[in-house]
Amino acid sequence: MKRTLLVSCLVLLMVSCYYRDSEPFIGNVKFDGTGYRPVYKNPEDISKVEVLAAQSLRKPGKIYTFDRYLFINELGKGIHIIDNADPKKPENLSFVSIIGNYDIAVKDNWLYADNHSNLLVIDIADPKAPKVTKVIPDAIPVHNYPPLLGVYFECADEKKGVIVDWEKVEMEKQPKCYR
Amino acid sequence: MKKLIPLLFLGLAAVGLMLLLNSCDDGASDSAPSPQTGTGGSMARFAITGNTLYIVSKQSLEVYDINQGGSPAKAVTKNLGVGIETIFPYQKSLFIGATDGMYIYNNSTPNDPVLLSKYTHVLSCDPVVVQGQYAYVTLRAGVNCRPGGSFSSLDVVDISDPTKPQMVNSQRMDTPYGLGVSGNKLFVCEGDKGLRVMDITDRKVPIQKHFFQEVPSYDVIVRNNQLIVTGKEGLYQYKFDESDSIEYLSKIPVL
Question: Are A146 and A153 in contact (CB under 8 A)?
């Protein structure tokens, strides 16, 4: 009995060491005067989706083709819907304004789009008048820290809203949060 | 001896037939997966195969059943490492690009993909596309991607055994982002530097044919000999064929 206890204690000890070792570089990087600051938005503004007249491209991101249509993401802002039946003369049909949108996928007349952490289902049976038919909240995990390791950042404050992005800025004081 | 000759011919014919059938199989596999779903680029975090929607977040793979297109139902979440960036479905596999490597999942059961292997490499940003037995991966060095000032590359990985991916070729690139593959062509987006057109008649060894430096590019879609490119100047469309000529079709400019 004593021996089992001893062995299990030893095993536990070893395991505890192992887990501590696998922590990513805590404190290994020196603060260099820059850090990441959260960009906040309030939840009502995030979920607002609007269908607008065709807009010109400004910062195009990912693309998706379906049938005769071409969907072009406007980074963080929404989706341009283009009729591409004649690739020599693509026709810009409409713009769906969606905050925090970067990705698109289509099956039949359903377009799936990210809206920050929400997943939107949009009926595009009439691509000139797309309609949001469903919002699945918290479908895409987002975290209250920047998507990087070995960086200092201003700690997230839920009272200020939802974090939609992180910007790298110069900071006078070393922020409290690090990962 | 004379009696053997017809047999020899028969044998050759059989081999020829097998080769033909094989190449047909190859050809069919680069077209769109099914007529009711669309095609995304290599930088995508969303992908649909059949009635399943896959979403990769920075740390996980989220799987949705979309048999009922209007109401996706959550099937499963698979936790992955950190720095997940892209997903590319190909036949019965999912290829997931992460900052530290490429994950290969078997999705024979679409609602519950199973991890087969992970091809690990140095820290970088790396989308992946697949054709036949080879995966083409770009590795981009950069502030958030590969710290320490190392170089960017285009790697060719043999995935004929998806449980044991093997690198067979690697060459330097400038600042590669998305890429696309079809037949004997491989297109590599080099960000502000331009768009590279590579010949892959030898699938293992991409050889550069054109480098369009006036076309800043971020991602491509290649489908039915049609090339769609986006970048900071706008969206460009081209037509291409097995030869080395590429025909400009149109541009939607950034204004």
Answer: yes
